[in-house]
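Q: Got a minute? One more chain.
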Amino acid sequence: MGKNIIMDVIRSSTAERPLILLDSRFDCIYSGNYNIIKPGMNLMPMLRNRLVLPLRRVCEDAVFHKGRFYCVRLIPVRTPENERAYIGELIDTKNVVRMGDKTDFGAEQLLEYGNMQHKLAGLWQCLASLRNEKGMGASEHLDRMEELLYSFSDIIANKHELLDAIYNEKNHTLFDVHGLCDRLCVRCNAVLAKCGRSIEFIGSDGGPLYVHQSSRLAVVALVNAIQNALLYSPSDTVPTLMAFAEDSYVVVRTTNENLMHTEQEFANGKDIEFNDQRADSGMSVIRTFVESAGGRMTCENDNGRFTLELRLPAATVDDPECCFEREISMQAYSCVPDFVQIKMNRVAELFSKDEMTENVQDAVTHSS
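A: Always. Here it is, folded:
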């Protein structure tokens, strides 16, 4: 392999898939513009496992640098002078997961999460039975059990929906995004009323906005977008959800004042964990929905205002390959909460506790 070819490969490096060139001692010779490993640095001390040089085959290991782990694939090459060298490909954990999602990496997990969903439904039914028994309608222990069930359901539901979207072929139909967003906001606000939060829908005047996609996945993605806008915004603000046509696309946009909760806030009393958001499964569901529809997703944080935009290819009712779905069902609350109820209850739980904490603080201030 000629040196010019090696350098051409390294120069194809990107921010998400950085490439480096190492000499026979694993000293970095070249790292391009997008790399955490700089020329002159030696890769060997950063590896999780001690490799024996020279490498005679492609090897894979993990690199720990500046508090983060990266997967690294090391490919032995020869320079024109017949000297040993190595091309290293670094992949962060987020991109490893994305690569795995394009294979059968999580197929077995889909069955496991499906079973957990089934068991959770049984627990919800048991909780409803206990509440219906004489004298058990209001109970501190049952309230705590319900709170924990919502927390667990929130995490499991998101992961199950993500894996289901990746590995199970969906029935795509033609549906109205404008109408869906409107009904979702009404449904979400009904759940959020107990905590004083709400989401405002701003629609267009041009009539229905049709796309061809899985309506179930659309509900899951949009509810995640709404939940994120609410979770990461101040309690005295109202995030917005917009739907409108632009060129050949249907655009869905959430906008909220940005407020990232810190570990210190949780230490001061917030008994809630955003596990699925921190694990990126919420955004992964949204990204899967958009990409499977042939669209694109963008995020922008400008002066404390966060905007998430989904651009979906518009469809028409006269498309012969589209099955028309006039109405997407919105399951009402039963003893087993549906996806909207689960996701919005987690928001209500957080901000209800905020309000209770403020009331206690006000009472202490007035009494003193």
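A: Confidence is low (pLDDT under 50) at residues 261-279, 356-368.
Q: Perfect, thanks.
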